[in-house]
Amino acid sequence: MTASLLLALLVTLSGTVATYLYDENASFGARLCAGAALGMAALGLVSFVVASFIGLTGIAILFSAAICSSPLAILTDAANAKRLRQDFQAVSNNTRNLFLRPDLKSAGYFLFYAAATVVLWKVFSRAVIQDDSGISTGLLNNFGDLPFHLSVITSFAFGNNFPPEDPTYAGVRFTYPFLSDFVSAVFVKCGADLRQSMFIENLILALSFIGLVHRWALVMLRDRLAAVITPLLVLLNGGMGWVLLFEKAGQNEGGLYGALLDLPPSFTVIPETTWRWGNAISALLVPQRGFLMGLPLATIAFTQWWLATEKSRPPENVKKTRAGAKQKTVSPEPANTRFPLNTRRMMAAGVAAGLLPLVHAHSFVVVMAMAGCLALLFIRWREWFAFFAVASVIAIPQLLWSILSSAVDASSFFAWEMGWDHGKDNPIWFWFKNTGLFIPLIFAAVLMKVDGYLVGKRLLLFYLPFTLCFIIPNFVKMAPWIWDNIKVLYYWWLASAPLVALLLARLWRQGPIRRIIALVLFVCVTLAGALDVAGITLRSIKYQVFDASGVRFAELVKEQTAPRAMVIHAPVHNTPVFLTGRRSLMGYPGHIWTHGLEFVQREGEIKRIYLGAPDADQLLKNYNVEYAVIGPHERIVTPGNERFFARFEKVGEVGEYTLYKIKP
Questions:
Q1: Which of 44-58, 402-416, 429-443, 584-598 has the lowest mean pLDDT?
Q2: pTM of the predicted structure, to 2 decimals
Q3: What single-letter DSSP state applies at residue 449?
Q4: Where in the sequence is the domain holding 604, given as residue range(s)?
Q5: Directed axis angle between helix 2-18 and helix 58-68, to 10°?
Q6: Which residues of 107-125 are buried (b: 16+ CB within 10 A; e: fewer)?
Q7: Are 591 and 148 spatial neighbours (Cβ–Cβ below 8 Å)?
Q8: pLDDT at 475
Q9: Under a CB-based contact definition with an 8 Å cutoff, are residues 602 and 661 in contact?
C-alpha cells in the first residue's frame, strides 16, 4: 500500500505544481485539490495508453509516473520555485497561527475540512468491507455497482485486459468509461489490495471535489459564508424525504430517538417508489466511481471559465505593512509566458475537459455543451478557441477509440420521455417531493432585490446554460435506464447550489429572525441527504457481496487459470469470477443493458449450456469456453445438469464452488 500512496502523492504534487502555469492567485489548498484531480486522471489516461502497448507492468507504471511527473520540471524556473516555497511557508505560518493565535475564519475552515475528512473517511471505509465473512458493502446503493467496479479493476490488474473487453461480457470492446477503475488497478499492481486501492482514490478525489466546489463558489460569489455553504448543499442534496423520518418515529416505540438509531438505507432514493433524487454521496460518489473523478475535473473547468471571462485586471496580492494595515500590490504576469493569463486558464480548462471521455462520458457531454453555450454569452473568441482546441486534442483520440468497432446500440440511449423518473406522480409534485424547497429558493435568489439584484447579471448569465441540464433530461431519456439521467441533472443542482447559498448567506446577515429562517431553510434542503450520510456512518449493517468461500474460490481460479481464460458462470452481478480478472462469458444482464449491449441471446444460450441441452457442447466450443463454475448462484439462477459437467476435469473445489476445465 505504501507504494500506492507514494504514487498518489507524486501525481497530486505534479498536478499541484502545474497549477502555477495558469492559476495566478489560488491558495495552496485550492491548488492541491486541482492537482489531485488532474494528477489522478492523467495517471489513469497515461498509464492506460502505456499499458496498452506493454501491459500493466511495473515498467509501465514507472514510465507512466515519469510522464505524469513532467510538470515538476517547471520548478527549474526560479520564479515558479519561489512561489512554491512561499506557498509552503504560508501554509506553515497559517498552521502555526491556527494553534497559537486562532481566528474565527481559520478555525472555521479547519473544522469544516476536518469534519468533511472524518465523514468521508468513514463513508468510504464502509464502501468496501473485507473481513472473515468475505467482501461486503455498508451502502445498499453500492450493492450492485461494487462487483462491477471490482470486475473492471481485476480485469486490468490480474487479467491483462488489453485491448480491453467488457469484463462482464467477453468478446465485446469495453467502451464504458473506466479510467477511475484503471487508477485503482494501478494501485493494486503497486501492492494495495482491492479495498485499499479504491479507498485511496475515493478519499482523495472526494476531498478534492469539496475543495474545488468551495473555491468555485468563492471566486463567483465573493462571499466566504456562501462559499462554505455551497459544498454542503452540493453533497447533502436531497428533497422532502426527511418527512419519512417522522413517519418512522410515529411507528417506533422509541419515538424519534429510536428512529434515529434505526435509520433506513436511504431517505432520498427508495426502490419501487417515486423517491428518486438520490443523495450525492450515497447514490453517486460511492457507487458511480466515474462520476467521482468526473465532477472535480468539470469543476476545474467551470472555475477557470469564470475567471477567464472576467474583465481583465492585474492580479492582486495582499500584504501587511509593519503597522498591520493591509496593502494591495499588483503582481505582474511573468515575462516569459507565451500566452496571456486568460488564455492559459482556458487551456487548463481544456485539459480538464479533455480528460473526461474515458472518465465519465455524461460529464464530458455536459462540459462541452455548457462551453458552447457560454462561448455565445461571453464572447472572447481567442480564449474559447484555446479551450476547444486543447480539449479536442486530448478528447478526440479517446472518442474515436470508444466509437470505432463499438457494439453499443446508441439508439438505446435516446428517446422522448417526459418528467424524468416520475412514475405515476404529477411531474411538478414529483420534483417538489424530490428536491423540496431547492427550486423555489433558486427563483427567490434570482428575484431578490435589495440595493440591486442579489444575483448579478454576469452570474445569472453564467448560470443560465446549466438550466438545460434540468430541462433536457426532463424531456429526453439519455441512457437505457432513465434514472441515469441524474448524471446530467446533478450538474444543474451543482450549478444552482451557489445561488441558493448566496441567498441563505444574505438572510443570515439580516438579523436574528431571518437568521432563523435561513437555518430552517438550510435544514429543509439538506436534512434528507444528511440522514443518508448519517445512516452510512452510524449503522453497522453490511450487505454481503462475496462470501468467504467465494473469495477463496477466486484465489483458486487465479492460481489454476491463465489471465485471459474464458469462464462461464451464472449471469449474476456478484460471481466470484469478478474477483479474478478472468474473461466472463456474461455477467449481470442489468449492467450489460445499461451499457447499451444486446444480451438476450447469450443469456438464453448460457442457460441451455447449464441444462446440458443437446447443443451445449457446440455452444461451449463456439464461445471458446475454457472453464465452468458450479456454485450457489448456478444452482439457483441456472439450475443445471451437474452430471453434464461431471464428465469434465474438476480443477478444484472450495465450499460449494467447483471449477471445471472444459478444454483438455
A1: 402-416
A2: 0.95
A3: B
A4: 545-661
A5: 20
A6: eebeeebeebeebbbebbb
A7: yes
A8: 96
A9: no
Specify whether the backbone of 405 is left (phi greater than 0), alpha (psi in -120 to 50) or beta: left
Does 435 have pLDDT greater than 60? yes
Q: Quick one: CA torsion of 20, 23, 27, 30, rounded to 10 degrees?
A: -100
Q: Which three cell numbers stand for residue 483?
A: 434514472
Give me 395's grid cell. 478528447
What pLDDT band is residue 289 in, cutting at 50, 70 and 90? very high
Q: Quick one: pLDDT band at residue 610, thresholds 50, 70, 90?
A: very high
Structurally, how many domains does the chain consist of?
Answer: 1
* Cα separation, 574 vs 637, whole angstroms: 12
CB–CB of 246/221 below 8 Å?
no
Q: Is residue 602 part of a domain?
A: yes
Residue 345 is assigned to a structural domain of this protein:
no
Angle between helices 438-447 and 512-538 (to 10 degrees): 150
Residue 90 C-alpha from the chain's centroid = 31
Is the residue at 342 inside a domain?
no
Q: d(Cα 115, Cα 95) in Å, to the nearest integer?
A: 17
The Cα-based distances of 102 to 99, 182, 204, 320, 476 in angstroms read: 6, 42, 27, 18, 52
Contact call for residues 662 and 652 (beta carbons, < 8 A): no
549 is a domain residue: yes
CB 19 within 8 A of CB 35: yes
Residue 484, C-alpha cell as written in the block: 441515469
DSSP codes, 408-426: --GGGG-EE-TTTT-TTS-
Please give the Cα distance from 8 to 183 (Å, whole number). 10
Long-range pairs, 45-51, Cβ under 8 A, ≥24: 45/179, 45/355, 45/358, 45/398, 47/182, 47/183, 47/186, 48/179, 48/182, 48/358, 51/156, 51/162
